[in-house]
Amino acid sequence: MKEFEKQKAKIQKEGVTSEKAAKEANLKAFIDKQKLSTKHEKQGSDVNSISNMNNDRDKSIPSFWIPTLTPQSKPTELKKPDEKVRCPMSGRPLRYKDLIPIKFTPINDRDNRSVITKDARFVCAVSNDVLGNSVPCVALKTSGNVVTMECFEKVIKKDMIDPTNGKQLTEKDVIPLQRGATGFAGAGLMLEAKKDGAVMQA
Predict the structure, then answer these.
(1) How many angstroms separate the CA atoms of 138 and 146, rounded?
(2) Which regions of the chain are under pLDDT 50?
(3) Which helix (H) or strand (E) holds 146?
(4) 3-class SS at 182?
(5) What are the φ/ψ torsions at residue 161 (nearest 5 degrees)?
(6) Which CATH superfamily is domain 96-176 in?
């Protein structure tokens, strides 16, 4: 915040000086234009010449390498930092009362290698199905427990009651969890195969 305030003060100071310089440049251009117009009136027919060597134009040939027009090396412009923590998805400010703790149910039997793989660490709180990156899940706001989408659709959605604590659920209390990406372009997307048939051409 201090750096932003310093930059703001510096920009204001530079703005005042640049405004003053711009006024002086405009005044000088106006005076030069007046002198040029009187000079052209005296010279008469030579004014309409397109040659850049007539009328002392050879001494004022425009150059590309003018120092005032070259880009200047300035430090990166800082933007005013946001004082609120925002949700990365919606962009709305996060409030502490809006946050809920999420509880993942750990696997109890770690020795049963025939059913559970080494990578599996959590299971559904209701059906005990193993959770993975390819399994859609939802979090129940009333208890914070994570269950599979299949369990929610087949068991919980009929009565809308949280089976872990018996509290009534609403649509806002069911939060779908976003699955992590695997590095593939189509990761986490519902892909649908399409078959193209014969096309009639005119």
Answers:
(1) 6
(2) 45, 111, 114
(3) strand 146-148
(4) coil
(5) -125, 130
(6) Zinc/RING finger domain, C3HC4 (zinc finger) (3.30.40.10)
